[in-house]
Inverse folding.
């Protein structure tokens, strides 16, 4: 599929999803409301590791190209990783955003997109990394948790932190209620961070991210 042309100044975003895609929707809504040039970026493609999810449907409804790269369609995890990297590369992104993408990428993907691959995680890293950040914070008895937007490195949720948002845990919370409140904060944070990275540029100094 041909790469979609965008306005000259805007950075090209490829967003990866695995589920409902409300963080993706927040990006799409903000870009639609603000305008591509003022926001500084446009979503040029949305990729997923599975079919039939609302995250892909959200992109399809507004005519954004989508692709699916499933682990089970590849002989090895490394082959999947290379195929994912190829699929993303085809859209020539400046930034890749993992917005609820529930897969750990490998060496080839990081070789191509390291330093420009952003993830959002539903906990205050380095606490509660992994696939169950909300459940783990609740089970631990944390009184505050939140979300972290960070660059991806070769660990699990260990890369340099860009921004965090704090959410109080309530006595009556279950995983779903707490996750919903985290996601309200997370969507605003992700929209703000991606826009600032795209508009201002940034550098990564060790563990520190400096947005210019
Ligand atoms: C978000 O809360 C995101 O932080 C989380 O999945 C949710 C996706 O929501 N990601 C992880 O847990 C990754 N470890 P969405 O599909 O509605 O944007």
């Amino acid at each position: 599929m041909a790469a979609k042309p965008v306005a000259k100044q805007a950075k090209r975003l490829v967003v990866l999803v695995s589920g409902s895609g409300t963080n993706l929707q927040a990006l799409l809504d903000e870009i639609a409301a603000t305008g591509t040039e003022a926001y500084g970026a446009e979503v040029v493609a949305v990729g997923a590791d599975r079919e039939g999810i609302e995250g892909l449907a959200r992109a399809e409804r507004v005519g954004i190209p989508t692709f699916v790269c499933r682990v089970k369609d590849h002989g090895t995890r490394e082959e999947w990783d290379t195929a994912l990297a190829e699929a993303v590369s085809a859209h020539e992104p400046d930034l890749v955003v993992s917005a609820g993408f529930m897969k750990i990428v490998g060496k080839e993907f990081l070789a191509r997109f390291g330093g420009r691959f952003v993830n959002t995680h539903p906990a205050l890293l380095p606490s509660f990394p992994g696939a169950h950040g909300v459940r783990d914070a609740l089970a631990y008895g944390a009184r505050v948790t939140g979300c972290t937007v960070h660059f991806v490195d070769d660990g699990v949720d260990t890369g340099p932190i860009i921004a965090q948002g704090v959410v109080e845990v309530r006595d009556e919370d279950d995983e779903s209620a707490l996750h919903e409140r985290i996601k309200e904060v997370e969507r605003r944070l992700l929209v703000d961070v991606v826009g600032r990275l795209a508009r201002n540029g940034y550098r990564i100094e060790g563990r520190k991210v400096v947005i210019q």
Summary: Residues 17, 19-23, 55, 99-100, 102, 120-122, 131, 133, 183, 186 surround glycinamide ribonucleotide (CB under 6 Å). The domain at 11-119+150-164+187-211 is CATH 3.40.50.170 (Rossmann fold).
